[in-house]
Design brief:
273 residues, 11 helices
Length: 273
Protein backbone atom coordinates (compact mmCIF):
# COMPACT_ATOMS: atom_id res chain seq x y z
CA UNK A 1 0.00 0.00 0.00
CA UNK A 2 1.52 3.39 -1.01
CA UNK A 3 2.12 5.33 2.18
CA UNK A 4 4.43 8.16 3.17
CA UNK A 5 5.92 8.19 6.67
CA UNK A 6 5.40 11.70 8.00
CA UNK A 7 6.12 13.03 11.50
CA UNK A 8 2.43 12.64 12.41
CA UNK A 9 2.14 9.10 11.02
CA UNK A 10 1.65 7.24 7.76
CA UNK A 11 -0.39 8.90 5.00
CA UNK A 12 -1.95 6.84 2.24
CA UNK A 13 -1.65 8.33 -1.23
CA UNK A 14 -1.53 7.42 -4.89
CA UNK A 15 1.17 9.07 -7.01
CA UNK A 16 0.50 8.64 -10.73
CA UNK A 17 3.26 9.84 -13.12
CA UNK A 18 2.58 11.97 -16.16
CA UNK A 19 2.48 10.02 -19.42
CA UNK A 20 5.69 10.15 -21.50
CA UNK A 21 5.84 13.14 -23.81
CA UNK A 22 2.80 14.91 -22.33
CA UNK A 23 2.96 18.66 -23.03
CA UNK A 24 -0.48 20.15 -22.37
CA UNK A 25 -1.14 23.89 -22.66
CA UNK A 26 -1.09 26.41 -19.84
CA UNK A 27 -1.12 24.95 -16.35
CA UNK A 28 -2.77 21.71 -17.51
CA UNK A 29 0.53 19.85 -17.22
CA UNK A 30 1.39 20.94 -13.67
CA UNK A 31 1.43 18.24 -10.97
CA UNK A 32 -2.01 18.04 -9.35
CA UNK A 33 -2.94 17.21 -5.76
CA UNK A 34 -6.49 15.99 -5.01
CA UNK A 35 -7.87 16.56 -1.50
CA UNK A 36 -11.18 15.01 -0.46
CA UNK A 37 -13.73 16.36 2.00
CA UNK A 38 -15.03 15.39 5.43
CA UNK A 39 -15.31 11.61 6.08
CA UNK A 40 -14.32 10.84 2.49
CA UNK A 41 -11.22 9.37 0.84
CA UNK A 42 -9.20 9.36 -2.38
CA UNK A 43 -11.75 7.18 -4.18
CA UNK A 44 -14.03 10.22 -4.45
CA UNK A 45 -11.87 11.32 -7.42
CA UNK A 46 -12.61 8.34 -9.71
CA UNK A 47 -14.19 10.68 -12.29
CA UNK A 48 -11.18 13.01 -12.33
CA UNK A 49 -8.25 10.58 -12.12
CA UNK A 50 -8.50 9.12 -15.68
CA UNK A 51 -8.52 12.61 -17.20
CA UNK A 52 -5.71 13.97 -15.03
CA UNK A 53 -3.37 10.99 -15.26
CA UNK A 54 -3.51 11.31 -19.04
CA UNK A 55 -1.73 14.66 -18.93
CA UNK A 56 0.04 15.33 -15.60
CA UNK A 57 1.50 13.82 -12.47
CA UNK A 58 -1.43 13.27 -10.11
CA UNK A 59 -1.42 12.70 -6.34
CA UNK A 60 -4.56 11.78 -4.38
CA UNK A 61 -4.50 11.38 -0.60
CA UNK A 62 -6.46 10.06 2.34
CA UNK A 63 -6.24 12.74 5.02
CA UNK A 64 -5.46 11.81 8.64
CA UNK A 65 -8.30 9.83 10.13
CA UNK A 66 -9.83 9.14 6.71
CA UNK A 67 -9.78 6.04 4.53
CA UNK A 68 -6.50 4.16 4.74
CA UNK A 69 -4.63 6.84 6.70
CA UNK A 70 -4.76 5.95 10.37
CA UNK A 71 -6.09 8.30 13.04
CA UNK A 72 -3.16 9.93 14.87
CA UNK A 73 -3.31 11.24 18.38
CA UNK A 74 -3.62 14.95 19.03
CA UNK A 75 -4.37 17.75 16.59
CA UNK A 76 -7.24 17.42 14.11
CA UNK A 77 -7.29 21.05 12.97
CA UNK A 78 -7.43 22.27 9.39
CA UNK A 79 -3.93 23.69 9.87
CA UNK A 80 -2.65 20.26 10.90
CA UNK A 81 -4.16 18.70 7.77
CA UNK A 82 -2.45 21.42 5.70
CA UNK A 83 0.88 20.71 7.39
CA UNK A 84 0.45 17.01 6.57
CA UNK A 85 -0.02 17.88 2.89
CA UNK A 86 3.03 20.16 2.91
CA UNK A 87 5.09 17.35 4.36
CA UNK A 88 3.82 14.92 1.72
CA UNK A 89 4.54 17.29 -1.18
CA UNK A 90 8.05 17.87 0.13
CA UNK A 91 8.58 14.14 0.54
CA UNK A 92 7.38 13.48 -3.02
CA UNK A 93 9.39 16.44 -4.40
CA UNK A 94 6.51 17.53 -6.63
CA UNK A 95 7.40 21.18 -6.90
CA UNK A 96 4.48 23.65 -7.03
CA UNK A 97 1.17 21.92 -7.66
CA UNK A 98 -2.41 22.64 -8.64
CA UNK A 99 -4.51 21.67 -5.62
CA UNK A 100 -8.09 20.53 -6.22
CA UNK A 101 -10.05 20.35 -2.98
CA UNK A 102 -13.66 19.45 -2.24
CA UNK A 103 -15.54 20.87 0.75
CA UNK A 104 -13.27 20.43 3.79
CA UNK A 105 -10.49 19.61 1.33
CA UNK A 106 -10.91 23.07 -0.21
CA UNK A 107 -10.50 24.59 3.25
CA UNK A 108 -7.37 22.53 3.89
CA UNK A 109 -6.05 23.49 0.45
CA UNK A 110 -6.72 27.19 1.13
CA UNK A 111 -4.80 27.06 4.39
CA UNK A 112 -1.96 25.26 2.60
CA UNK A 113 -1.99 27.89 -0.17
CA UNK A 114 -1.86 30.74 2.35
CA UNK A 115 0.84 29.17 4.54
CA UNK A 116 3.00 27.60 1.83
CA UNK A 117 2.67 29.53 -1.43
CA UNK A 118 5.90 27.93 -2.59
CA UNK A 119 4.07 24.61 -2.85
CA UNK A 120 0.82 25.76 -4.51
CA UNK A 121 0.68 27.23 -8.03
CA UNK A 122 -3.13 27.32 -8.35
CA UNK A 123 -6.17 26.26 -6.35
CA UNK A 124 -9.51 24.74 -7.39
CA UNK A 125 -12.21 24.75 -4.69
CA UNK A 126 -15.27 22.57 -5.29
CA UNK A 127 -18.26 23.62 -3.15
CA UNK A 128 -15.87 24.71 -0.40
CA UNK A 129 -17.13 24.68 3.19
CA UNK A 130 -15.12 27.73 4.26
CA UNK A 131 -16.63 31.17 5.03
CA UNK A 132 -19.96 29.86 6.29
CA UNK A 133 -22.51 31.99 8.12
CA UNK A 134 -21.45 32.92 11.62
CA UNK A 135 -24.93 32.22 13.00
CA UNK A 136 -24.56 28.50 12.20
CA UNK A 137 -22.05 27.94 15.03
CA UNK A 138 -24.62 26.78 17.57
CA UNK A 139 -26.15 24.31 15.13
CA UNK A 140 -22.76 22.82 14.32
CA UNK A 141 -21.81 22.62 18.01
CA UNK A 142 -25.00 20.64 18.56
CA UNK A 143 -24.05 18.29 15.71
CA UNK A 144 -20.58 17.85 17.19
CA UNK A 145 -22.16 16.89 20.52
CA UNK A 146 -24.49 14.45 18.78
CA UNK A 147 -21.52 12.81 17.04
CA UNK A 148 -20.16 12.07 20.52
CA UNK A 149 -23.49 10.65 21.68
CA UNK A 150 -25.36 7.34 21.52
CA UNK A 151 -26.84 8.10 18.07
CA UNK A 152 -23.50 9.07 16.54
CA UNK A 153 -23.74 6.81 13.49
CA UNK A 154 -27.28 7.88 12.63
CA UNK A 155 -26.26 11.53 13.02
CA UNK A 156 -23.29 11.08 10.67
CA UNK A 157 -25.44 9.38 8.05
CA UNK A 158 -28.07 12.13 8.24
CA UNK A 159 -25.35 14.75 7.69
CA UNK A 160 -23.88 12.94 4.69
CA UNK A 161 -27.25 12.12 3.14
CA UNK A 162 -28.41 15.71 3.44
CA UNK A 163 -25.24 17.01 1.82
CA UNK A 164 -25.06 14.47 -0.99
CA UNK A 165 -28.67 14.59 -2.10
CA UNK A 166 -29.68 17.24 -4.63
CA UNK A 167 -32.74 17.56 -6.86
CA UNK A 168 -31.37 15.09 -9.43
CA UNK A 169 -28.63 13.27 -7.50
CA UNK A 170 -28.40 9.56 -8.44
CA UNK A 171 -29.12 7.23 -5.53
CA UNK A 172 -25.84 5.38 -6.02
CA UNK A 173 -23.84 8.56 -5.33
CA UNK A 174 -25.69 9.12 -2.05
CA UNK A 175 -25.00 5.50 -1.04
CA UNK A 176 -21.32 5.85 -1.95
CA UNK A 177 -20.95 8.80 0.41
CA UNK A 178 -22.81 7.01 3.19
CA UNK A 179 -20.43 4.07 2.91
CA UNK A 180 -17.39 6.38 2.91
CA UNK A 181 -18.60 8.00 6.14
CA UNK A 182 -18.88 4.59 7.82
CA UNK A 183 -15.23 3.77 7.09
CA UNK A 184 -13.98 5.53 10.23
CA UNK A 185 -14.90 4.76 13.82
CA UNK A 186 -17.49 7.00 15.53
CA UNK A 187 -14.72 8.44 17.69
CA UNK A 188 -12.64 9.39 14.67
CA UNK A 189 -15.63 10.92 12.86
CA UNK A 190 -16.38 13.05 15.90
CA UNK A 191 -12.74 14.16 16.32
CA UNK A 192 -12.44 15.11 12.65
CA UNK A 193 -15.72 17.05 12.66
CA UNK A 194 -15.00 18.97 15.84
CA UNK A 195 -11.38 19.66 14.89
CA UNK A 196 -12.29 21.00 11.48
CA UNK A 197 -15.51 22.85 12.19
CA UNK A 198 -15.00 24.24 15.70
CA UNK A 199 -11.23 24.70 16.05
CA UNK A 200 -10.52 28.39 16.83
CA UNK A 201 -7.94 28.56 14.03
CA UNK A 202 -10.34 27.05 11.45
CA UNK A 203 -11.90 28.66 8.39
CA UNK A 204 -15.41 27.20 8.60
CA UNK A 205 -16.95 30.55 9.56
CA UNK A 206 -16.63 33.83 7.69
CA UNK A 207 -15.03 36.00 10.42
CA UNK A 208 -12.05 33.63 10.79
CA UNK A 209 -11.95 32.62 7.13
CA UNK A 210 -11.56 36.02 5.51
CA UNK A 211 -8.05 36.69 6.80
CA UNK A 212 -6.83 33.30 5.58
CA UNK A 213 -8.55 33.46 2.20
CA UNK A 214 -7.08 36.91 1.52
CA UNK A 215 -3.61 35.47 2.04
CA UNK A 216 -3.95 33.09 -0.92
CA UNK A 217 -1.73 34.73 -3.57
CA UNK A 218 -2.55 32.14 -6.22
CA UNK A 219 -5.23 32.11 -8.90
CA UNK A 220 -8.34 30.40 -7.51
CA UNK A 221 -11.20 28.70 -9.35
CA UNK A 222 -14.17 28.20 -7.01
CA UNK A 223 -17.38 26.33 -7.87
CA UNK A 224 -20.09 27.23 -5.35
CA UNK A 225 -23.65 26.11 -4.62
CA UNK A 226 -24.07 28.74 -1.88
CA UNK A 227 -24.39 32.31 -3.27
CA UNK A 228 -23.36 33.90 0.05
CA UNK A 229 -20.20 31.82 0.24
CA UNK A 230 -19.43 32.61 -3.38
CA UNK A 231 -19.70 36.35 -2.78
CA UNK A 232 -17.50 36.06 0.31
CA UNK A 233 -14.93 34.10 -1.70
CA UNK A 234 -14.90 36.69 -4.48
CA UNK A 235 -14.27 39.47 -1.96
CA UNK A 236 -11.15 37.61 -0.86
CA UNK A 237 -9.69 36.98 -4.32
CA UNK A 238 -6.26 38.56 -4.76
CA UNK A 239 -5.07 37.26 -8.14
CA UNK A 240 -6.44 38.64 -11.45
CA UNK A 241 -7.07 35.12 -12.77
CA UNK A 242 -9.39 34.13 -9.90
CA UNK A 243 -12.86 33.04 -10.97
CA UNK A 244 -16.05 31.95 -9.17
CA UNK A 245 -18.79 29.89 -10.80
CA UNK A 246 -22.30 29.32 -9.43
CA UNK A 247 -23.60 25.75 -9.68
CA UNK A 248 -27.26 24.90 -9.17
CA UNK A 249 -29.37 21.76 -9.24
CA UNK A 250 -26.84 19.38 -7.69
CA UNK A 251 -25.83 18.00 -4.33
CA UNK A 252 -22.64 18.82 -2.49
CA UNK A 253 -20.45 16.25 -4.29
CA UNK A 254 -20.23 18.15 -7.57
CA UNK A 255 -17.23 16.24 -8.91
CA UNK A 256 -19.16 12.96 -8.66
CA UNK A 257 -22.57 14.19 -9.76
CA UNK A 258 -21.49 16.57 -12.54
CA UNK A 259 -18.06 15.21 -13.50
CA UNK A 260 -18.13 16.29 -17.14
CA UNK A 261 -18.97 19.88 -16.25
CA UNK A 262 -16.52 20.05 -13.35
CA UNK A 263 -13.70 18.54 -15.42
CA UNK A 264 -14.38 20.88 -18.34
CA UNK A 265 -14.48 23.99 -16.11
CA UNK A 266 -11.15 23.03 -14.52
CA UNK A 267 -9.52 22.35 -17.90
CA UNK A 268 -10.74 25.58 -19.48
CA UNK A 269 -9.49 27.64 -16.57
CA UNK A 270 -6.11 25.95 -16.23
CA UNK A 271 -5.46 26.33 -19.95
CA UNK A 272 -5.61 30.11 -19.53
CA UNK A 273 -3.03 30.34 -16.73
Amino acid sequence: MPCADLPAGRMFHVDLPAPPGARPAGALGLPTLLVHGLWDNAETWVHQLPRLRGRCRTVAVDLRGHGRTGPPAGDWSTERHADDLAGLLERLDTGPVVVVGHSMGASVASVLAARRPDLVRALVALDPDYAGADDSRDRLRALADALDGPDAEATALRIVTGLARGPNTPAHLVERQRLAALWATPETRAHVFRGHVLHPAGVRFLPEAEAVLRRRPQPVLALHRDPDRMRADERCFTHPDCKAIAVTGAGHFLHGELPDRVNAEIDRWLATL
